[in-house]
Each structure stands twice: as structure tokens, then as C-alpha cells.
Prior knowledge:
Elements: H1 11-23, E1 27-29, E2 38-40, H2 42-80
Amino acid sequence: MELAKPFDMTQPAISQHLKVLEDAGLIVRRSDGTKRPRRLAKTGMEALDQWLAMLRKALEKNYDRLEEVLASTEGQKKGEK
């Protein structure tokens, strides 16, 4: 219930989100009596960080290519006038 308080979501919805994060390996759960505390999973976060770095590189290349195409298009338009 503590996790649901700051959000406009029901406790079952929060539980579903936590299950997805757990299945993805981004959080881990342990049992502590009736509580089920969760924490970030270091290996899952490292894998996510590597994936984001790869995505960032790919996007940078795409933006660089787009910039080149737009620059050549501008150059052609100026040459036509």
C-alpha cells in the first residue's frame, strides 16, 4: 500500500507493474514476514544502461545523417535560386 499512496493507481495495478519489472529483471523481491520489499536489481539496471547507450549511439548516427540530408537539401534549394 505504501507504493500506491503517491500514485493515482490501485494497489492491484501497482502489483501488476511490479510484476512486470520483476519479470524483466529490473527489480528483485524478498520476503520479510508479511512484507514483500523490492529493490533495484543491479544486473538488470546495468543491462538497461547498456541497451540505452546502444540506442543513444544509433539515434545520434540517425540524427547526424538527417542533418547531412537536410543540409544538402538546403544547399540544393539555394543553388536553384
